[in-house]
Each structure stands twice: as C-alpha cells, then as structure tokens.
Amino acid sequence: MKKPTISFRHFGGSGPLSVYWHPGPYGDAIEAARGSGVGWFTPTREVLGAEFDDVVYERDEQSLEFANGVVVRLHVSHGKARVQLDQRRRKTKAA
User: Which domain holds residue 17?
Assistant: First the structure.
C-alpha cells in the first residue's frame, strides 16, 4: 500500500486528523466501533481513507476499529503523525 496523505487541522491544541491512501471521491463513511472517527472503504475492504475526530497535537495515540476487521492506528508526537494499518483476515466458510 502506498504512503498515505495526512491532514491535521489542529486549533488550540487539538483537532481532526485525516488520512488518505487514495484520492477521492469516497462515498459514504462508515463509523468506527467506538465512534471516535470514520473510514471509507472499497467493496473489497480496501481502505481509501480515515478521519479521527479529535487528536491532541502534543502527544496522542488512538485507533479506529471497524466491523470489517480493519484497524487504523495513530501515534502523534509534537504534531508529527504516524499511521499504521492492520487488517484481520476474515474466516472463510466452506461451502
């Protein structure tokens, strides 16, 4: 997967952070399991982008977990963000 584009719009010490692996348009967003952000996916579960609702500029660690098994992890230190993408394998059922 290619390197993502990160957009951090912080105001007064925190703000939303967006991560995009592909250019838009994205369609409907899917809410993360704990409601701390959203993600955009292809029908084959490939991640197009994700947005964290509120990220602290100085230091923060968060993750967005989605029902389709995708987890987007975020680590911020002094405004510099690193993102890690994890995808659980789906269990397939024999016919």
Answer: 5-87
- How distant, in Å, are the alpha carbons of 5, 22, 47 from that of 88? 23, 21, 13
What is the C-alpha separation between 87 and 47, in angstroms, rounded? Answer: 10
Q: Is residue 92 part of a domain?
A: no
pLDDT of residue 95: 53
Q: What is the pTM of this model?
A: 0.85
Whether 73 is covered by a domain: the verdict is yes
Confidence (pLDDT) at 24: 82
| Structure token pair of residue 92 | 């397939």
Residue 33 has pLDDT above 70, yes or no: yes
Please report whether residue 95 resides in a domain: no
| Angle ∠(67,20,35) on CA atoms, nearest 5 | 35
Domain count, the chain: 1
Question: In the beta sheet, which residues pair with residue 61?
Answer: 75
Helices and strands in the chain: count of H runs, count of E runs: 0, 8
